[in-house]
From TrEMBL:
InterPro entries: AAA_SelU (IPR058840), SelU (IPR017582). It comes from the Bacteria. This is Selenophosphate-dependent tRNA 2-selenouridine synthase. GO terms for molecular function: tRNA 2-selenouridine synthase activity. Residues 28-181 form the tRNA 2-selenouridine synthase AAA domain.
Amino acid sequence: MDYPLIVGGYKALRQAAIQATDELVQRPIVLIGGCTGNGKTQLVCSRPDGIDLEGLAHHRGSSFGRTLQDQHPQATFENHLAVSLLKKAEQQTRWVLEDEGHMIGANHLPESLRLRMAQSPLAVVEDPFDVRLERLREEYFDRMYRDFIAAYGEEKGWQAYGEYLHHGLFAIRRRLGLQRFCSAH
């Protein structure tokens, strides 16, 4: 079996990952944007040239974006990004990415990627409001509830799910306003 070997330990591996990312993000990038609930992540994941940044970050990039998996440390996130790019590099000449801010949860995008994304064209996905609302209900509430129960059992799962909802509401409290936040809380 033939595989690349990086000599020099973890520091050499980190430098190789950073260098690979810096080089590979110079390829053309198409950003997928739109409102929350438009299915951007599913679209990116369905494409052979798609890189799921939110999946790599273990966060959906929104106030209710936490998942049951803890986010990786920054260096691990960057290493996973490099591996994802390298795995697809031979077959792909461009990348399709979801339009993200500089942070996905606690992880930030590498500067080389952010700079390329700022120069890249944006394709906007639009779905009717009722389709978005149904997708949001399933992804952020129904599926998360099932995942918490499966991971922790009925009682602890319900408690953890409640904490997830509270955390999400707390993150949007300014947008809700104090009165609406208190009534939802």
